[in-house]
Every structure is written in C-alpha cells, then in structure tokens.
Please model this.
Amino acid sequence: MKEPTQEEFNQLYKKRRQKAVDYLTENQIGAAVFIDSEAHREPAIRYLTGHTSDAVLIIFENGKNVLIPWDEILARKQAFCDKLIPYTKYKNSELQAVQANLNAAKGIRNMKVELPPYITYPDFLSFIDALPQWDVRCKQTGIHQYIVEQRMIKDEYEIACTKEAARIGDLIIEKIEQEIKSGAIRTETDVALLIERELRLNGCERTGFDTLAAGPARSWAIHAFPGYTSGEWPGNGLSILDFGVVYNGYTSDTTLTVAKGPLSPQQEKLLNLVQAAADECLLLYKKDIPVKDAAERADGIFAAAKRKMPHTLGHAIGLEIHEYPRVSSKMTEDVVFKPGMIVTLEPGLYDEQLGGVRLENDVLITETGNEVITHSKILRIE
Model:
C-alpha cells in the first residue's frame, strides 16, 4: 500500500484528536488522560498520535495535547503531537506526569479531568489527592468509550492498513496450502513458525494474537491450549488454523479448516453446516442491519441440526484483535452494521469425537453491502 507522507500523517492524527477535543468542549471537560503501560494497553494513544506503546497522553479542551513517553527517542521518530516530554522527567511516575501537566495548563475553563476507566480505585484516590484544584472523574461512558466508538468506524488509512494485513494473510494461506501438499508442513509448530517468518518478510509487525494450530487430536477446542505443539498438522480428519497478522498496527483475523483424507458422514455434516452458516450470514452483514440478526441466523442453522456454536459469530477488528461490536444475539437492536466497520464472520462447531470446524474471514461493511477482504476457506486434502 502507499504510505502517507509525514504531513498527511500529521493531519490524520490532528483530525482524530479534534474529535476528542470537540467531545471535551461539548461535555464541559477540561482534560482527558490516556495511559498505556504494561498494566493496561491503551490503543487510543496509537490511534491519536501514532506512538506505539508505553506513554501518557493528555488532551485539553483548548486543543492542546502533550505526550509523555517512556521511550523518548522512539516517540520522536513516530509520534505526532503538540508537545513531547520524556517520562523520566517525572521519575517514571504517571501520577507526577499528570499532576505537573494539568497544573501547568493555561487557558482551561472547565476544571474537570477524566481519567481512564481501567485505573484501580487506590490509584484513583491518589489522583484525587494530587489534584485538589481539579474535579477528578473516572467513568465507563466518558471520553474513553467515545474513542472506542470512533475507532469502530475505520477511516481510509485504517481500511488500507487492514486490507494490506488481509492481503499478506492470504499470501501466507496460499503458501501454507502449497507446503501442506509438498509435505514441508507436518506439525502444528511447522505452520506456526511459517506464519511468523512470512509475515515479517512481508513487512508486518507481528501476529495479531498467538497463533492457534490444532491438529485432529485437539481441534475440538475453540482456542486450543497450548496454541501449537509438536503434534501432527494437518493429520487425517479435521484440523484448525486461526491466525492474524498486523500491518502498521492493524490486524487481520482468519481461520481455515483443513479436511484431510476420507471423512465420516458426521464430519462432512459439520463442514457443510459451517459453510452454510458462513454463506447465509454474510448476506446479513450489511448497512443498518442489526448485528444480532446475523448471529441469530447462525444459531438457527445450527439448532436445526441439533448443534450449538459456543462463541459469538464475530467481532470487529482494528488496533486490537477484539473490538466493539461483537456479532452476538445478545446485542441490542440499535447496534447495527455501519459502513467502515471491519468485522469477522466466523461460524464454528466443535465435537470431542469428530473434531472442530471453523471458517473465519474479515468483512468490510460498505454503503452498498460488504466486501470480504480475506479469503480463508475449508481446505480439502486427499
């Protein structure tokens, strides 16, 4: 894909932060604090500045912002922000960093500050003590949730990055199929390490999550543990491979099932049911259709065969592997598919005796329908 220029990146992050500023102004909040650390990863910092990890970001109602990174050199090379101050200046203390910058802020009318909803209660009390001039707030439905909702609808750059991750994932699937047929892949570890190698050769950062490769002896697990072993893959029967690759922060998420050798009628039925659910539910991945409708359709297909899927039909993807919304029958009617969402479609069935089948692809919701941007499949090997 064509990478944006530095100025285009700068304008991209400014536009995203301006929405946060507008939220602060509308809700009469003076500042918002975002914290990314080993204790809790906060994708909003990368979304709003381009900086990848370990930092404090403060956005003020007057439009100003300050980024306080642990790795100053890395931040100067990759971040877009108004002001950058190294974390070491504050003795590597989030509390001191926030306290100093809030107290030094000029032109703030509303002395309310929203802290992340994931901080602990003792830390919340510490912030209250350290900021006597501020009305310190911490809520589930504040600006942090607003940013989550903004991230739900991908902009052009996010769509391009996810499509590139999807393209590379497809190339890897093609190579896996070739190496299965040539005999180069014989174990779960073989296929997992192939993925690790190929994604980096193609410019990706990492896997989106720990790869799950389960041969016939354990494909009955929804998420096999451990993720991969020295066990045979793919052996005779049903094998599952679930993986994602990350390009510029954005992940793909695909699952293919390998059906090898002669299968029993019951195993064939599992395959046919999952394929039918994937085909029929895709028709409901469209603008303004409640996400629960697709989930209920999958549940109905499986229930008619006296089977039950033990997980949701899908979820959004982006800077995180599981983003809002979930494609679940538990969602309310007002949660609908919207253009710009990228959502997985992953029907699956699992049987301790027969093995498991899951088919997962990533779907971009468009104004006129949808676009399936990955091309995972049920792969049959004689």
In short: Residues 153-381 form a domain with the Creatine Amidinohydrolase fold (CATH 3.90.230.10). The mean pLDDT is 97.
